[in-house]
Here is the input.
Amino acid sequence: MGDAFCELIGRLPADKLPQLGGLNASIVVLIDYTSLKSDTGRATLEDGQPISASLARRMACEAGLIPAVLGSSSELLDLGRTARLFSGAQRRGLAITQRVCTAVGCDWPAHLCHAHHDDSWLHGGKTDMKNARLLCPRHHARIHDPRFETTIHPDNQVTFHMRT
Here is the structure.
């Protein structure tokens, strides 16, 4: 029954599935080209879990591939004030770069987090990657709660302190 269920899931059209945060169901696999071609290469899922290159190739067989160029100085994912909500591409970029909720000590995975504007969009903030962070629902509510003061640390992690 489990094999049949997995086969069913593998045959569902991804573009017809529900979306979460502007993205269809997707798996982010981080792998360099040399490892992808290698029989012994390793890859990493967006949550940091290692997988084999052969498993990454099998996943890619039935999926659309979206290459992500890491380490580039290009700012392709910036939307400025043209859009209030972060796009699917931006959320994918946040998942690759941040991986989990950015609150100190929180390990909620990226795909369950909300995309938050550090500088509020309502007060002129831009929908750009430099102004974006992932927060789980609990910490997203807290960052908007006036009872708490938020500190953004140099490593892009945030902490919250009750105002006195």
